[in-house]
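Researcher: Next entry in the queue.
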Amino acid sequence: MFKSDWKPNKSSSVPLHKQITDYIKEKISNGEWTLGYKLPPQRTLAKVLEVNRSTVVTAYEELIAEGLIEGKSGSGTKVVNNTWNLLATTPPPDWNSYVSFGTHKPNLPTIHEINQAEFSPNIIRLGTGELSPHLIPSTSMKKVFHQLSNKEISYGYEEPKGLLPLREQIANYLKTIGIPASPSSILIVSGALQALQLISVGLLHRGSTVLTEKPSYLHSLNVFQSAGMHLVGIPLDKEGIQANLIQQYKKQQKAALLYTIPSFHNPTGTLMTLERRKQLLDICHQEQLPLIEDDVYRELWFDENPPKPIKAFDKHGLVLYLGSLSKSLSPGFRIGWIVGPEPVVEHLADIKMQTDYGSSSLSQWAAVEWLSSGLYYEHLHEVRQQLKTRRDFTLDTLNKYFSDIAVWEKPTGGFYIWLRLLPSLSMRRLFEMALTEGILLNPGNVYDNQADQYLRISYSFASLSNIENGLKRLSKIVKMISK
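Model: Structure for this entry, 483 residues:
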């Protein structure tokens, strides 16, 4: 989605098309729009700059005449020269080719559009998987940083596994959920996403297959794919991943690893039962299939604690356990952890030091204060109540506007409702029409390319009024498209 902070001055004596021509030339000459850069379509640019399309057409024609851009039917208009290139015999590097051949794959187009649109003012974000700014305890956060200002803390690099007082606090927390772990078996990371990046480059070979739930949050990322891995999904039922299929999938796909989100799964909200967790671990042990347990939503339960983590039953060092403060406290904190066998943790710590020389020491000290003071546990109590209220409100709103056009399950924790639309329609068209109306969606097909009738609805981020307004308007769009 093209954006621009610049707008032509309509009260200027300089013609609008000339202002646009100069603006584009400046972008090209500054190297912001490099060779091969695809210019926005004429209608899009006209809408963004708030001018007639004919004005943009005239500007593009002038730039084509000067040899700076070139338009081809079917492939759009691209930068083919810059002002220096017109004068020099040796052309500058084509950065587009570098972008194309980089190791890390770009986001899926829809994910890229979502990431861009999330920062648009006044947009209703019905799929965003993070706490609302109103649920982040800013007053307590200021209190924590004030307390830190009166303490002797280090501001330099920490040891490879992370700040020892923080790892001690996390070890104490893990005991309360049934995981015996010493600080030496814990690695502090910048959120669970970095944990996955470290695992992908540090433990797996290129071409390895990773088994996931189907659908899965992993399919909306390119973390494993960029390291040359293949993702294969195993279907879910109401109790979690269908563990009885693992042996078959491992053999067929020669799988190296299994990744699961057992507690309030992203995107479906499913809570894996205790029996399924034990069955999953038993089968993975029989198959010698290592397991990544992503438990970042664990503490966001509403009426009763979820079953113990799979890691709590792990007697053979088969499970790498991921936790984080991003979902429960603040996404900007960037504090998460990996728990596993010490040799594995030490290896991942070494790779992390090569990557970023350790997570923010200030954030780590703040996390120590949150956990040791008891403020974190007080906050969890409050945020659970708030999220439960939001879930109930969203379910009531869905009953009001979607009862005849969708089905869903009631989640018992986490952020998400997995909404299946009953009318057959184009999810791409729905996404685009909703975006035009100022509603941002997370389509199901970014989590599973076959889930093209699903939406991930989040009740954690948007205000209650925006949730109702957004869902009411969305139901009208669905009905209009499906006629």
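Model: The longest strand covers residues 230-237.
Researcher: Noted, moving on.
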